[in-house]
Amino acid sequence: MHSALFSSVQGPAQTAPLERLARVLEDVGMPEFLAAFPDGQPSISDWAAATASLADDVRPVHEFLLLGRAVDTRILPPELQECFPQLSEVGILDHQGGKAQLIDAVLMRPLGLWLFAAPPSPFETDLYFGADSVQLARQLDIVPGSFVLDLCSGTGLQGLAAASRGATVHTVEINAAAAAVAGVNVALNGFADRMSRWTGDLFAPLPAEAVYDQVIANIPFLPGVANEPDGFAAGRAILRRLPSRLAPDGTACLTALVLTTPEGHVLPGGLREFCDRAGRGLVARLGESWPVEAESSLVQTLADEVAEDEDDFADRVDEIVRGFRRRGVVEARTAVLHIGPVGGAGAISFVDSVTEGRA
User: Which residues does residue 281 pair with via DSSP β-bridges, in sequence order?
Assistant: First the structure.
């Protein structure tokens, strides 16, 4: 039996408070406030500095939602207080002793969409949000009326972006905490009538007959030190089932890490073979780059993930750098992989989105 996740925030009686909250956020000027900051890397310290100059009647709302500060509930709008049961149910609100405070989440507005998620961080968290999330959402080519599947959907940005452009969307997320918060985000943006949410591992919880015009997946792509040197294990699992779930002229957009050697770009294993076998082409749009040096955020993040303690950290950094250099890797790039009937069967091309954006 397949069931949508957290139906308690899908009915009219449950979505109405969140929809009213969205209108209040407009009234207190939060969209304009957030529009002054980058979508992909908002800075809590920059928000804090700007919030300090706001008028007394709107500052508490901003401090509560954007900065994660404990606020006296009596000075918060009643429409916000009406949402406390939903926010508590999904685990992002601590409300006691007349004070309320968000837990492990803040409210953001990437691409004009309301999103409760963890503040941007290079580390994987239950409520992850980062520049790669925005990079993928920006590159989606959504046809109004199309049927879209968002795998590894997290707190929901890609699915929300597709729904905002007129698609009907199924989302799947294995992490229950992220899936629960995604339900709040769906209701807050007013998309409960066009988005259905599922919990489970990739395609497993979906109706057997469902076939999609586009499949999106913001997969975790940090390479493992031992068993998954390219970080594309989830991507390969998606590719194995993709032909049976994608319409004949359908497309897929997956995130990945592309490594660069003196000979050129190196795609994660299995992609070229998939394109040849499935008769599809691939365009890899390259984004942020990291040098494979001890000081780079990529190497530092990988070392932090595997180091047993602080003393072990430096050894792990050296091990990771040596591993990349043994393979001739000089740089790593985030990438959005566009797979579909482009360029002919098995055609592979690379586009530098960073350089393209500066042109």
Answer: 340
